[in-house]
Amino acid sequence: MNETKQLEISWPGLGITVAAELDQRNPSLAQALWDALPYRSLQGHALVAGYHLYHLAPVHALLHTAAEYKVDRRTVPDGTLFCSRLQHLGIKYGELTEPMTATPIGQVAEEDLDALIHAGREVWNSVYTTKEPVIAEVRRAGQTGGHVLPRLPVGDPELNQLAKEVHAETERIWLDPPRELLDLHEGRIPSGAGSYETVLTTLLFVNGETRPLGYSCYGGLVRAALDGMPMPWLRQMTRQLAHTPAEFLGYCGLDRLWDFTQRLLDGLERLDSHEDYIAIMAHMALYCNCLGGWNLHLFPWEAGAHLRRLQVQA
Questions:
Q1: What is the three-class DSSP state of 48?
Q2: How distant, in Å, are the alpha carbons of 141, 193, 213, 257, 292 from that of 254?
Q3: What is the DSSP string of 121-146?
Q4: Range list for CATH 2.40.100.20 in the chain
Q5: Which residues contact 134 (CB under 8 A, 6 or more apart)?
Q6: Half-sphere exposure (CA, 13 Å, Cβ side) for 253?
Q7: pTM of this structure
Q8: Does the 5-140 domain belong in CATH 3.40.50.1580?
Q9: Which residues pair with 8 in a beta bridge?
Q10: Which of 1, 184, 211, 290 has the fewest CB atoms within 10 Å around its CB?
Q11: Is the distance from CB of 138 to CB of 39 less than 8 angstroms?
Q12: Which residues on neighbouring strands pair with residue 16, listed in sequence order?
């Protein structure tokens, strides 16, 4: 646990690589990330908080691994790496405005901060304007890259088959946008969702439902199970939290998500162990978080370019 952990974070499409080192501020989180390397992921950019990069890391343990040291991320140096329970690897590269408590795990090398800033600006342009995906690769220094999404087994045969299908679908869309989201963003909505034939309204609501479904519902249920919540309560909470947003998203065009959810809810009574419950919920969390990442990338943020924050005088 105490050996030096040197990383390389690369954006091959941009021709940029930065070096970083994991430290001991949150050693359990750092180890969880280290054990998952190498991987690739769609690179995202903060849309509200400021100059901050983040992407989804394929690490189930990030949903629940306890942090030992927390900071106000506005106060730490540029180049600080964070891991979060949203399954994100984040990198601060400039001023942040959101007073969010965060869990640092490392630091980009001082000599690479200019390259990091360049990457940040290019990613912002990708997310806000061009919609050309930027892929990040995170690997151990000096080693080759690669990519594997972890799979957790489930004891019940039908739910294990569901986990396999959710895992396969997550792999399929990990680096390529889901067809159903592309259709939605191009205005092909078979249900007719969108009053007066609008599309932007539907996109907004889809984004607003998908993110908390992964972040809060499934991620929260994993943590509740690990905290020892009894299985009957977990089953009831799953029904209460997952059904309505997934049904709405199915109506908006995310049929596969709604199908997975219905099969999950139908099989809840066969989940007898916390271990199996955590496994299937972790797969649903990663899948929903992947959908959320693509939603954020594809959303036409530039439609609001004429709306700019006013400078408020102190």
A1: coil
A2: 39, 12, 13, 6, 12
A3: HHHHHIIIII----EEEEEETTS---
A4: 5-140
A5: 11, 13, 14, 42, 43, 122, 123, 126
A6: 24
A7: 0.96
A8: no
A9: 19, 139
A10: 1
A11: yes
A12: 11
Torsion angle of C-alpha atoms 92, 97, 103, 106, degrees rounded to 10: 20
Cα dihedral value 169, 54, 61, 141, nearest 10: 100
* Cα separation, 259 vs 150, whole angstroms: 22
Among 16, 7, 6, which Cα is nearest to 120's?
Answer: 16
Is residue 101 classed as helix, strand or coil in its secondary structure?
Answer: strand
Residue with tokens 């986990």: 163
How does strand 50-56 pair with strand 71-72? unpaired
Residue with token string 């030096």:
4
